[in-house]
Amino acid sequence: MFQRRQSFLVLTCLLISCLLMAACSQTEKRDGGTSANQTGNSEKHAEMLIGVIPAQGSNQMELGADKLASILTEKLGYKVRAEVYPDYNGVVEAMGAGKVQMSYLGPLTYVEAHERYDVKAIVTQLIAGKPFYYSYLIAPADSAYNSLDDVVNNSKNIRFAFGDISSTSGSLIPGIALKKTGVFKSQQEHAFKSITYTGDHTATALAIQNKQQDVGAIDSAYYNNLVKQGKIDGDQIKTIWQSEELFQYPWAVVDSMTDADIEIIQETMLAITDADILNAFGGASGFTKASNEDYASIRQAAIDDGRIKPRQ
User: Fold this and answer.
1) Of these four, 70, 138, 141, 142, which has the most CB atoms within 10 Å of its CB?
2) Are residues 124 and 290 in contact, defined by beta-carbon separation less than 8 angstroms?
């Protein structure tokens, strides 16, 4: 009798142990568990979103960004997709909200995002083999204005076009140059006939070509690429001012991005030769590594212009 009871208790304990082990196994599967796959990229990232500023304002950027996302999906081992945002600041806010993990930003937009959300630059584009571009002031080819001095001296007759208000070459740098002359302080306070923010470089170039605006501020790389692709007629436009060298647009990632994934992204982008991707980003000749230190001069310009506050 005692032996039968003892056997019954042993079998009961074994049954309970099996049930508990099965329950734990199911819980681990639901919660991510501690399986070997948990440490892999497919478990860490269901998806990565790349946010792209609308520098060109065209489907060309979507094509290039989507192709890049497809290549990174293959290399990283988890889903990557890209989205072109309607304005520059929207990408910054999306990174801050955790919706975007990697982004294509203008230098000014980058330093703002870095100050607010501690994102970091990892890659930039090369134009004719160099990581630099300029801010141009452009005017119709038959315009009487040929220099910054001409713009200042005739400001009351000039319809002036900036790009996006958060653009480095389309707003910050030319805005600082004009502020130093005293003819511009803000969209509401200036000496021009009118001030317009077009939203992107393509819109600025077309506004000048069509003589809807008299002088416009634009990114040199995007302007030259628009001419090269025949999207604007370079014979109808002239450059009347050029800034000092500006370090090219960065690709930035959130602080939580792993070093391993950053290395994969850098190696992948440095090897890209796809024309659709390169043309989408200012007619790039390729990509190279970048760091936060590369944008020190833009950061100082943003501080001087009151866009960001210096860290204490």
Assistant:
1) 138
2) yes
- pLDDT tens digits for 142-152? 999 999 999 99
How far apart CA 44 and CA 37 sit, in angstroms, is 9
Model-level pTM?
Answer: 0.82
pLDDT grade for 44, boundaries at 50, 70 and 90: low
Give the distance from CA 192 to its chain's centroid. Answer: 31
pLDDT at 270 over 80: yes
Q: Collapse the DSSP code of 186 into the 3-class scheme (helix H, G, I; strand E, B; otherwise coil) and give the result.
A: coil
H helix or E strand, kind and range, residue 289: strand 286-289
Alpha carbon of 284 to those of 57, 128, 136, 211, 287: distances in Å? 17, 7, 18, 28, 7
Could you give the CA distance from residue 259 to residue 263 in angstroms, rounded to a whole number? 6
Q: Measured between alpha carbons, how far is 68 from 80 in angstroms, rounded to an integer?
A: 9
